[in-house]
Write a structure and sequence with these properties.
The chain is an alpha+beta fold. The longest helix is centred in the N-terminal third of the chain and has 30 residues. The chain is rod-shaped, with a radius of gyration of 57 Å. The N terminus and C terminus are likely disordered.
Length: 663
């Protein structure tokens, strides 16, 4: 009997032990169902208020492992602190303002967290009616926190980024400058404290290095210096950061700060150019020169195109090459350098065409608009001053900037040589030839009634003189086609015996008066050759030329050429003995007159040459024992039923002792 009871008792103990093990398995399994949970917030993060005979909280509900703070958005619901799936909120104005607030007040006091909790429910809560009832209690208990919530929300207005503005400002033309970046709110006002990035795409970089710059916005905007590395279009793209929010789906949905995200802002595209092409504009100092004249060129520094900008104070050396001996066929025949042709190659090409420089010049410049008067010299870097010659004819300058002759610093900004064209109008001049005239009258003494004549030989004219029509663009006048021969008489009209007093003197013809008369003027071709004057010879227009000695006195032939742009003025002298005839009065006695001993003329004088004209300007007993066993079985069944029910509910609640409303 004792043994039976002992066996039965052991069975009951075994059943109870199994029950305990089953309960442990249920609850032990529940403890490992959800490993990711929030840490419940304490009184440092929220404030309590009584509601529906229970204690509720407003403020932070819990914190995750990264310290992010979670705020309830379902008023009146419980939370098991289990972290469920999250969804990032759409980035509207309210979401960005909320993110700004949470980022701004990451570490603050309980009252401020409570104020933020109010803002969260006001703008993101899901049970408006329940929240309104709770707010009535909070307003009565914590009016200062409600007021703070309003202030914080108002503070966030205008603080959230909505875009960027980006502008390019040049410091030095297209070669360098700055990018001005502002992060702006929806109203377009610049805001501070927002991280942004600017990226340059193209031939430019930021001065501090690289093509990307990251910074934090200011209310005045941020200026970032850049410099060109080549030429072309550069685009400056901007991005800025903004805060995002996410909602966690759990027994109590909660709102928390998610992360900073980057989005594209404004961009701008601009042209940059590091290199530049220097140039000079030139004008010969005098368009018309005479033989043995020095040659000058007025040179002004500049750039070759609108996108070129001289680097400030960068010194460059320019060289000039002067060509002459050109004829009328060369005037207007401009020879232009080929694209990317070097200075040496261009000069070599001119040489193959028969054009070689006869003189040289050089000048240095450090900017645009500087001027220099350059004299042509016989050697590139030395020598004497060059002077025009009898056959210099038309002349022209060619100017070059050789990259190889510049400093290393300057070569960084030059991609090749610059060359001016050959035979440009402003660069061209003309050197007038000097004429030689030899003439003699047929007889140096004659009687009244005699035919007077002269022979004139002219040299020095260009072979084609008289045919050149000039060139208005080059400011060269046409050839003067005619020279003139005039015949002058001088003597005493009342007393021929006094004619000696009026013997021609001086190089210039006299002013007409009673004792000095211009008898005739004829035009003859202005060209080389020997010309017969008088005795019926034809003038330039085909009319015969006659001159008869009608009174005693001196008769002088004067040849004159007024000059043009290819030949200097010239004339024979009025007192040239070879050009005068003495006509004596007839004898009054029956005895023939002794012929006057002919005068032996001196050697012919050179033709006078007037002064040159002035120059032009980016979870199997008894009944009693059977009853006990039945009761025990029922008890065990009930316990198991309770365990199973609690195991199912534990998926929703971790500890039944924590089932207090927190929101």
């Amino acid at each position: 009997m004792i043994t039976t009871w002992r066996q039965r008792g052991m069975a009951i103990v075994a059943m109870l032990t199994g029950l305990i093990i089953m309960v442990g398995v249920v609850f032990g399994s529940a403890n490992t169902a959800y490993a990711a949970t929030l840490t419940p917030a304490d009184e440092r993060y929220h404030v309590a208020f009584p509601y529906n005979d229970m204690e509720y909280y407003v403020g932070v509900a819990g914190l995750d492992a990264s310290g992010n703070k979670y705020y309830c958005i379902e008023a009146g619901k419980l939370s098991d602190y289990v972290i469920g799936p999250t969804t990032v909120l759409a980035s509207d104005e309210n979401a960005r303002r909320m993110a700004w607030i949470l980022d701004r007040y990451r570490d603050t006091d309980a009252a401020t967290h409570a104020a933020i909790g109010i803002i969260v429910q006001d703008h993101f809560g899901r049970d408006r009616d329940e929240w309104a009832r709770q707010m009535a209690v909070i307003q009565g208990r914590y009016p200062e926190i409600v007021a703070k919530a309003a202030r914080i929300w108002d503070q966030s207005a205008g603080k959230t980024p909505a875009g960027t503005t980006v502008e390019r400002t040049d410091a030095e033309a297209l070669r360098s400058g700055s990018i001005s970046v502002k992060v702006v709110n929806r109203a377009g006002d610049a805001i501070a404290g927002v991280p942004f990035t600017v990226t340059l795409q193209g031939a430019a970089r930021f001065v501090q290095g690289g093509n990307t710059f990251s910074g934090v916005s200011t209310s005045a905007g941020s200026s970032i210096a850049w410099e060109a590395t080549g030429a072309g279009e550069v685009t400056a793209n901007t991005t800025y950061e903004y805060g995002r929010m996410h909602v966690m789906d759990s027994t109590q949905d909660m709102l928390a700060f998610d992360s900073m995200a980057s989005t594209g802002g404004a961009s701008t595209t601009f042209r940059v150019r590091k290199d530049f092409v220097p140039a000079v504009s030139t004008k010969v100092s005098e368009k018309v020169l005479d033989v043995a004249s020095p040659v000058f060129d007025d040179v002004t520094s500049g750039v070759a195109d609108a996108d070129s900008y001289w680097v400030p104070d960068l010194e460059l050396q320019a060289r000039g090459y002067y060509f002459d001996g050109l004829d009328t066929g060369d005037v207007g025949n401009v020879i232009t350098p080929n694209a990317q042709e070097s200075a040496d190659a261009f000069l070599a090409r001119l040489a193959t065409l028969g054009y070689e420089p006869v003189a040289y010049g050089k000048a240095s410049f450090t900017g645009v608009g500087q001027q220099a008067r350059v004299q042509a010299m016989t050697k590139p870097d030395d020598g004497a001053a060059y002077r025009t010659k009898q056959n210099s004819g038309f002349g022209t300058w060619v100017w070059v900037f050789r990259r190889s002759e510049q400093s290393k610093q300057a070569q960084e900004y030059l991609i090749g040589d610059w060359i001016s064209p050959f035979m440009e109008a402003t660069e061209s001049n003309t050197s007038r030839r000097k004429l030689e005239v030899m003439s003699t009258v047929t007889e140096h003494s004659a009687d009244i009634g005699a035919e007077l004549s002269d022979t004139i030989t002219v040299s020095g004219f260009p072979a084609d003189h008289g045919q050149y029509a000039g060139n208005e663009e080059y400011e060269f006048a046409a050839d003067r086609p005619y020279a003139t021969v005039s015949v002058w008489w001088s003597g005493d009209p009342d007393n021929p015996s006094n004619d000696e007093a009026y013997k021609p003197s001086g190089g210039e013809v006299p002013t007409e008066d009673d004792s000095h008369r211009l008898l005739a003027t004829w035009e003859i071709p202005a060209m080389n050759g020997t010309f017969k004057i008088g005795a019926g010879a034809l003038d330039a227009h085909g009319a015969p030329m006659y001159l008869t000695a009608e009174r005693p006195g001196w008769y002088v032939f004067v040849w004159r050429f007024e000059g043009d742009d290819r030949v200097s003025p010239a004339s024979s002298r009025y007192d040239d003995a070879w050009e005068r005839v003495r006509v004596l009065p007839p004898c009054e006695s029956e005895k023939p007159c002794e012929p006057e001993k002919p005068e032996t003329p001196p050697a012919p004088a050179e033709a006078t040459t007037p002064n040159p004209r002035p120059s032009l300007p980016v979870t199997g007993g008894d009944v009693s024992l059977a009853s006990v066993l039945a009761v025990s079985a029922l008890a065990i069944g009930a316990i198991l039923s309770i365990v199973v029910r609690w195991r199912r509910r534990y998926d929703r609640f971790k500890h039944w002792t924590m089932r207090w409303p927190i929101c």
